[in-house]
């Protein structure tokens, strides 16, 4: 089996060919790039909208709650400065009690709830309440838009096996890893593009990038799992990587880009990940995780997507490794 692979293809993926030699991965497993961009202020680089859209849900909820508390706290102080005697209906006599009543009156004004027990009576308290009502309407509109943007933003949630394997494949070996759709939505026309990055053996300050030809680079439907396979033939960039130490020595990294059409959003979605040298297992094969229930429907146990068994590689792999060790 031969695949014609242009050695000059994909020399640089946009990650740069120069390396620090510290062994850090170029692409994190969550798809983020391991790059520290400096010289720009945080909001100049991202923008407030992008920052709010892309942050984690836990941080976003915490930010909303904190902002809500801070705004009401500030307006409560303004009501206290304007004088609590200008808020009709206040019953508390202590400073803390009056402040808490002003705080909850602020929350009612901000959200335009207005229960009616407290109401502004003086000029300054009315001005503050009017400004807060406008701020509340604008804040509510902004929060609604950001929430919609977060919920409507298409994204692929792909589950990757923890390890990539070097496994027997026909009469040779192959690099393979397994993926599955972590969500219940339908992904169609899924495409995979795999690149192999490693240190140049003559100049370890530079990295080389090679495209890996796949047994199958595209599938039409993705309801179960997909084991992505790169046959290691005579034209493969991995043909000289015979053992784990070869990958470690060259600080190798398998970089993955997946593209699919999300049937729910009717948009194209992407997902990225990578495998470092220490995450590549030699002489292993993924376990079968398919089954069938009582109704004859195919079942897939995604809890076992990472499971594999050790197997023997073809004899020629061990023979070539022994020859290399003898020469050394």
Polypeptide structure, described:
It is built from seven helices and 16 strands. The chain is α+β, with helices and mostly antiparallel strands and 328 residues long. It folds into two domains: 111 residues, Helix Hairpins; 170 residues, G protein-activated inward rectifier potassium channel 1 (Immunoglobulin-like, Sandwich), CATH 2.60.40.1400. The strands form five sheets. Strands 3, 4, 5, 9 and 12 form a five-stranded mixed sheet that branches. Helix 2 crosses helix 5 and helix 3 crosses helix 4. The two termini are 30 Å apart.
Could you write a compact summary of the structure shown?
It is built from 7 helices and 16 strands.
What is the topological layout?
Blueprint: H1 42-46, H2 48-54, H3 57-82, E1 87-88, H4 95-110, E2 119-120, H5 123-152, E3 158-160, E4 164-169, E5 172-181, E6 187-199, E7 207-212, E8 218-221, E9 225-232, H6 244-249, E10 253-262, E11 267-276, E12 280-282, E13 284-286, E14 290-292, E15 298-300, E16 308-310, H7 315-327
Parallel strand pairs: 4-12
Antiparallel strand pairs: 1-2, 3-5, 4-5, 5-9, 6-7, 6-8, 6-10, 10-11, 13-16, 14-15
Helix pairs in contact: 2-5, 3-4, 3-5
């Amino acid at each position: 089996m031969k695949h014609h692979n242009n050695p000059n293809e994909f020399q640089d993926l946009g990650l740069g060919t120069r390396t620090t030699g510290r062994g850090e991965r170029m692409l994190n497993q969550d798809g983020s790039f391991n790059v520290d961009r400096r010289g720009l202020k945080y909001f100049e680089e991202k923008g407030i909208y992008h920052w709010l859209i892309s942050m984690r849900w836990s941080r976003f909820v915490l930010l909303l709650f904190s902002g809500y508390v801070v705004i009401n706290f500030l307006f409560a102080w303004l009501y206290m400065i304007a004088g609590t005697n200008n808020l009709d209906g206040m019953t508390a006599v202590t400073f803390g009690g009056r402040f808490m009543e002003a705080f909850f009156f602020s929350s009612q004004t901000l959200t335009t709830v207005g229960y009616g027990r407290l109401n502004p009576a003086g000029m300054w308290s009315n001005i503050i309440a009017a400004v807060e009502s406008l701020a509340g309407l604008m804040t509510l509109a902004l929060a609604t838009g950001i929430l919609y943007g977060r919920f409507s933003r298409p994204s692929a949630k792909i589950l990757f096996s923890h390890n990539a394997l070097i496994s027997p494949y026909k009469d040779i070996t192959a690099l393979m890893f397994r993926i599955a759709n972590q969500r219940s939505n339908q992904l169609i026309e899924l495409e995979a593009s795999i690149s192999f990055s490693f240190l140049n053996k003559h100049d370890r300050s530079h990295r080389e990038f090679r495209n890996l030809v796949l047994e199958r680079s595209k599938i039409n439907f993705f309801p179960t799992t997909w084991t992505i396979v790169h046959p290691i033939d005579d034209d493969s960039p991995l043909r000289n990587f015979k053992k784990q130490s070869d990958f470690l020595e060259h600080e190798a990294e398998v970089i993955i880009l997946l593209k699919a059409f999300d049937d729910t959003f009717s948009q194209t979605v992407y997902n990225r990940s990578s495998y470092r040298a220490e995450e590549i297992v030699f002489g292993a094969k993924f376990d079968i995780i398919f089954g069938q229930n009582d109704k004859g429907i195919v079942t897939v146990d995604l809890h076992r997507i990472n499971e594999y068994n050790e197997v023997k590689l073809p004899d020629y792999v061990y023979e070539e490794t022994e020859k290399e060790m003898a020469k050394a």
